[in-house]
Amino acid sequence: MTQRERIVEQAAKMFAEQGIKSIRMDDIAKSLGVSKRTLYELFEDKEELLYLSIRFMQSRRMAKMEAKLKENADSLAYLFESMELMMDNKELHRRISCNLSKFYPKTFDRVRREAEAQSGQILYSLIEHYIDCGLIVPTVDVRLSVTILYYTANTLISTAGNMNLPDGVTLNEALSYTIVNFFRGIATLKGVQQIDEYLTNKKKKEDNNNI
After folding, report:
1. 112-149: pLDDT as tens digits
2. Fold of 1-43
3. What angle in degrees, to the nearest 10, is found between the helix axes of 76-87 and 189-209?
4. Ranked by mean pLDDT, which of 5-9, 65-69, 89-93, 178-182 comes out on top?
5. What is the DSSP letter of 162?
């Protein structure tokens, strides 16, 4: 790992734990045992380091999702499980997003556009793959499906604080419900059978955990 990469990783950790606004370049330099001058030799300013730190966090989340999918690329169950990984720490990422849009709007727009493009490409490839596997109907409009799923999930997350979910329903459950039923709507019979099996197994796990 290069010094630049080490700084980005440490900055990402500090921004996540302590907030975007409260962390100064002095704090990052001190935590790493380097001079502030060294930081400014490697990064133009705090905003550049912040941008790279957020992209680092996003890339790490995407890597976890892709690693999960590789365990069994021919099963919709693994798609849902990998997306559950994406939901981990959603409150943290929502807070970072809100603060970024408030204090660094240009960087927020840049991060949003790039994350949208990256997520969209992954979803597009996944749907095409599941079509080839006979799990999704081949007549589906892939680009439209990606757009609908992406914006629906992101709207749920971004407006979570203003939503009146039914009593006892968590945001994770609402997201899972939305994603699962979205894919049920475009799945083949074989795909629907996998979805039903996934839901049955998930219910059994939940019941066992509640014992």
Report:
1. 899 888 888 888 988 999 999 999 999 999 999 999 98
2. Arc Repressor Mutant, subunit A (1.10.10)
3. 50
4. 5-9
5. G
Q: How many CB atoms lie under 10 A from the CB of residue 76?
A: 25
Strand-pair partners of 136: 187
Alpha carbons 94 and 32: distance in angstroms, whole number: 27
The residue to which tokens 């490409």 are assigned: 121
> Where do the structural domains in the chain lie, given as residue ranges?
1-43, 60-209
**Site of tokens 């290069």:** 2
- The rounded distance, in Å, linking the Cα atoms of 155 and 106 is 20
Please tell me the distance from the alpha carbon of residue 74 to that of residue 85, in angstroms, as a whole number.
18
pLDDT at 207: 80
Decide if 81 contacts 68 (C-beta within 8 A): yes
pTM assigned to the model: 0.79
The top-scoring range by mean pLDDT among 23-27, 57-61, 113-117 is 23-27
Q: Per the structure block, which two tokens stand in for 121? A: 């490409």
Q: Which CATH class is domain 60-209?
A: mainly alpha
Q: Is 186 left (phi over 0), alpha (psi -120 to 50) or beta?
A: alpha
